[in-house]
Amino acid sequence: MSYTYPDSKRPDLQDVYFELLEGQSVLLTGPSGSGKSTLLRVMGGLAPRFYGGRLHGQVKLLGQDLDKWPHRDLCRHIGILFQDPESQLVTTRVDQELVFGMENVGYARDLMQDRLQEIAAVFAMQSWLYCPTLHLSGGWKQMTVLASIMAVRPRLLLLDEPLSQLDADSADQFLDYLDQCRRHWGMAVVIAEHRLDKLAKRVDKVLYINQGKVQAQPTDKISWLVGYQGTEASNKAKRISAFNKGQRVAGLRSVDFWYTHAQQPVLKQLSLDLQAGEITCLMGANGAGKTTLLKLLLGTIKPCRGQVDICGENPYRMPALQLARKVGYLSQEPGDYLFSPTVRQEVEFTYRSLQLKDYSRINRLLERLHLQPLAHRNPRDLSWGERQRTALASILVAQPQVLLLDEPTRGLDYRLKNDLAVILRDLANQGTAILVATHDQYWANTFADQLLYLKQGTISDTANSNYSGEEMLEV
Amino acid sequence: MYQIPVFIEKNRPLFKLHYGVLAAMHLYLLVFALVFDHPVYLLAMLAAIAVLMWTADTISYWSAYLRMSIPLIIFIIILNVLFSRAGSTPIFNGPIILFSAEYYLPFTWEALFYGVGMALRLLVIISSCASFFALVSPAKVLGMLSLFGARWALTFNLTLRLIPLMMEEYHRISEVQRCRGVEWTGRGVINRVKSFFPVSSILLLSSLERSVAMAESMYGRGFGSGPRTSYYQNAWQRHDSWAALCLTIAGVISIWALIAGWVEYSYYPQLSLIRWTEIWPALVIGGLLVIPALRTGGDLAATADELTESELYLSGQQTP
């Protein structure tokens, strides 16, 4: 099978051939932009039906060509879960979301009632079945969409980076539910994912995709991939720092913080120092308060008790022009930064806003972040990793003394994660204090100077990263 | 910190009413808020809505709407006082001395009361919308709109879901842009408008991207593959008949008062007198509208002190 998107000049998938058996679980892996999502869309009947484009060859489900299946029957047999759960939730309450798919494919009310109870039991959702979807965490949103798809009970389940927003425990729980569904209903599952360590022991088959071409790999190859690439990152990013560490540039002192609607404080008596030239990784479960801590340092929220300072000043009271020169913040969504017609103009916007003088800084920065060849492209047309680098460039042009990054590895493959680690190490070597909130323990271990664990509102444990990628894998 | 009003189903009589009755009641409020001129009639409607919201324990939901409408209400009153010249009773009788010259201000009590009357009308309209969205769950609205077509229903539901989401996005983008030197406070109106440009552009672009992702997901989940079935059904019960009867009587009295000319009120050139013989229907209408909210017993009795599952969750007694 080969497939070409309407705007593409060459095939996005080429000469793909593989078979899936009932109950089989398959991991689809490969670099960002290699065609994983496209393959899932073709298998799910969305391409070319929804996207247009040209398909050559055959894609069959239960022995029948996919294009001969009526839309309704196809949706009863194939379920697709995409990366961002927010864009998949259609209704305002969990129970409504669970029946949404069943209503669409015309199930009878009695059947829907039975399925709703069954799926709520399998996913242990009874206690939050009537919650507004607006109030769910990212992990629970993901679970709700999966449960909604499972309620239709498809024969084939396609998952596009389902673990990207989940912490380690939530990811394990999600995969446990998935195994449970497979055991219950015997469906085939295809998972496109970068977090290979989580899936190594759970899949029957691995498909490696690169530049639109698929190769089958033995499952033990995953361990090799993870171990090798982790070591590579470690070697590049863990260079001995050229900067003399020790100078405190920002921090929190005995900070309490709670949201108005919450019963318990998010942060309790939390203290933290950020030092120049040091990379600190902040880890913790979904909802532990990592983003809240970053926002306190950014000055967008005010602590209920305690003090926050950036270079000795309160960030909450700092004017934006002054703040931008001291703190850079890269959020989980690089799209939140991008609106200019070209990458260069995007960086220039910050430059103009801050009335900076040294224009050559822009060129140096584009060069350093490998954005020079993309300087005249629209940032919204770029891949996730390229968008992220553009957003990073748009804040680094201000040369902030403190850099805060929120889940920067989301959606990045191992190669891009390595690149990011190297860039962050370069910045640290120039004296920038870096705080990274991440779920990616494996990645954090490969390059952080300091690992902090946020649990129940406090930093529960501090440990220097002293074990390698291979050891992590064994753990 | 901004608060997004969210529908929470509660164990109160109004939440048990059929969505058809609730829709008719709010349609009545909306239409007659536009028809009635008399401030006492408008006040009676506003008081009825206040009682409805209080008995349904949705005052906080209503107050969120009121907070949003206060600037507009103040603007209407001030505008009317400043520019209306039809009144005859000046607020200030004497001259005002400015730079050694005497000025007579043209502001009148009639213009002020007309502004208050218009603000009252707007308040009733906004409050009736708030009451409707506080009392009718999006699922019921979805069911109601399904009568006109599934696509209409879904569009409405998506709007309900995406508005709070967009508000969250707006705040997130504003925070992010602050790190690029985009200032929201001080520096004058022009600079603030300039600052709004990147945020609104990003919001628009992100919304367009999200709409494609959502359309893809909905297509993948079978939306548009043929006629939909509906899981949620709302059966007509006896208390719905009583509520419908009260509403019908209120409607008949309103039309009667309209034909008799009792609902009219003239502000200019002088405020007309308020006669008891003309305003008694307003009190009856207000009373009839709140009767369905005062029901006790039946399906409410067994669980009178229990919270619904949504309430439990939001009160923190039950968390996912």
Word description of this protein:
- The complex is a heterodimer of chains A (475) and B (320).
- Chain A has 475 residues and is an alpha/beta fold.
- Chain A folds into two domains: 2-217, Rossmann fold; 238-474, 3-Layer(aba) Sandwich (Rossmann fold), CATH 3.40.50.
- Chain A is built from 16 helices and 19 strands.
- In chain A, strands 6-7-8-2-9-10 form a six-stranded mixed sheet, sandwiched between helices. A six-stranded mixed sheet of chain A has the order 15-16-17-13-18-19, with helices on both faces.
- The longest helix of chain A has 18 residues, at 168-185.
- The radius of gyration of chain A is 23 Å and the shape is globular.
- The model of chain A is unreliable at 463-475 (pLDDT under 50).
- Mean pLDDT of chain B is 82; it is low at 301-320.
- Chain B has a two-stranded antiparallel sheet with strand order 1-2.
- Chain B has a domain at 13-139 and 235-314.
- In chain B, helix 9 packs antiparallel against helix 10 (276-290).
- In chain B, a hairpin with a 2-residue loop joins strand 1 (96-98) and strand 2.
- Helices cover 64% and strands 2% of the residues of chain B.
- Chain B is an all-alpha fold.
- At the A-B interface, helix 2, strand 6, helix 3, helix 4 and helix 5 of A face helix 6, helix 7, helix 8 and helix 11 of B.
Descriptors:
heterodimer, A: alpha/beta, Rossmann fold, six-stranded mixed sheet, globular, disordered C terminus, B: 320 residues, mainly alpha, two-stranded antiparallel ribbon, flat
